[in-house]
Amino acid sequence: MDTDDWALRAAELDAADPLRTYRDRFLVATDDDVVAYLDGNSLGRPLRASAGRLNDFVTKAWAGRLIRGWDEEWLDLPLRIGDRLGETVLGAAPGQSTIGDSTTVLLYKLIRGAVELRPGRSEIVIDTDNFPTDRYVVEGIATELGLSVAWVRTDPRGGIEPGLLEPVLTERTALVVLSHVAYRSGHLADAATITRQAHDAGALILWDLCHSAGSVPIALDDWGVDLAVGCSYKYLNGGPGSPAFGYLRHDHQQLFRQPVWGWMGRADAFEMGPGYEPAEGVRRLLSGTPAILGMLAVQDSLDLIAEAGMPALREKSIVLTEFAIDLHRAWLEPLGVELASPTDPARRGGHVTVEHPAFRALLDRLWARGVIPDFRAPQGLRLGLSPLSTSFAEVLAGLAVIRDELAQLPPASSSTA
Questions:
Q1: Catalytic hit among 374, 382, 392, 403
Q2: Rounded CA gap, 146 and 344, in Å?
Q3: Which residues carry this modification: N6-(pyridoxal phosphate)lysine (predicted)?
């Protein structure tokens, strides 16, 4: 197909998109110069409703209620939003999810507490291409507690598979830490099967949901997951640095002890007495005063996701990524670009990665032309396609600029050698 045919195809897909009107709910700056925003898997666009919510909070709740706001609403907000997360995107019953810390802090709390639920076991399993923070936290805790790390070697263009995990699981395995959607390739793990594998070995499992929450259906309770963590600024559109969420299954809560003892996680926070006794339920995951401002916008995204429905978001995500891959094959592959994501949509999350040696150098030029993907070393360009805010015309425009920039390179620069 020529460019006009592709444009017609994008227009047809946009016209047939049942979620097309949701794009109008997102806020665009008055001086917006973005041609194609292809980084929704790093930072989601803001919702119009969030601008109103944040303004109202400052001018009414904060200015008007002052310290009374804690008793009236704010103290329980991490748990209320946690339950809403569970209901809307996590497949989790109430009382198991909360929000408030960074992803790194929650990973530390959950991993550190989880290994102590498996006394006598001395090993944490994680894959070699998991997100750096996950790997670093695991290595730090292993060093702290005198544990060992069992590495599962995974292909950066693929991800964790049941067959790769099986040989590593032993009677020494205390905890398995994996990402549901691989941050680099977008590979979607078979969470249900892998969770059963970990349990069959007597181990617990923690899933990192940073790249799946809000883009693919999740069923933590049905899968029997023990612990999970994820961020809220990607597909959940919570804003830069908005807090992460943690999940702790009901039947682990009574014995679970997280390592950061703070007043908000104590049984009676306002007693201010000696000694620390953890609160009942998932509140024991809390430590210090939660960042209320940072979690406000997540509520608007959860309302939007609940209205649209995760099945519809997943269907749109698949069609978006298929369209991007079709354009890659037609326009980028002849220029030496390689696909670094699964071709099977059932094994792919919400983003697509393509690789070329020139992409690092091209990124600034793409951004200058209003096309905004992100780069992942050594030579990957990630195309993060958020189903609620990304149009097919936007994908077409972005891939066209990437094609044109590559075509302008000298022959030596555009070679894959």
A1: 382
A2: 40
A3: 234
Q: Active site residue: 57, 131, 314, 375, which one?
A: 131
Whether pTM > 0.85 for this model: the answer is yes
**Binding positions for pyridoxal 5'-phosphate:** 103-104, 131-134, 208, 211, 233, 263, 289
| Catalytic choice (83, 101, 127, 208) | 208
pLDDT tens string 246-260: 999 999 999 999 999
382 is catalytic: yes
Give the closest residue to 124 by CA, choosing from 132, 116, 183: 116
Q: Which of 414, 388, 408, 269 is nearest to 333 (CA)?
A: 414
73-305 shares the fold of 3-47+309-407: no
> Can you give the pLDDT at residue 417?
36
Closest CA relative to residue 370, chosen from 388, 403, 397, 331: 397
Q: Give residue-wise pLDDT tens across range 280-328.
A: 999 999 999 999 999 999 999 999 999 999 999 999 999 999 999 999 9
Q: Where are the domains of the chain?
A: 3-47+309-407, 73-305
Q: How far apart are CA 336 and CA 82, in angstroms?
A: 45
Choice among 234, 249, 266, 316 that is catalytic: 234
234 noted as active-site residue:
yes
Name the strands in the sheet holding 374-376, side by side, starting at the edge strand that comes first in the sequence. 338-339, 351-355, 380-384, 374-376
CATH class of 3-47+309-407: alpha beta
Topology (CATH level 3) of domain 73-305: Aspartate Aminotransferase; domain 2 (3.40.640)
The mean of the pLDDT values for the chain is 96
* Per-residue model confidence as pLDDT tens digits over 352-400: 999 999 999 999 999 999 999 999 999 999 999 999 999 999 999 999 9
Give the residue numbers of the binding site: 103-104, 131-134, 208, 211, 233, 263, 289
251 is catalytic: no
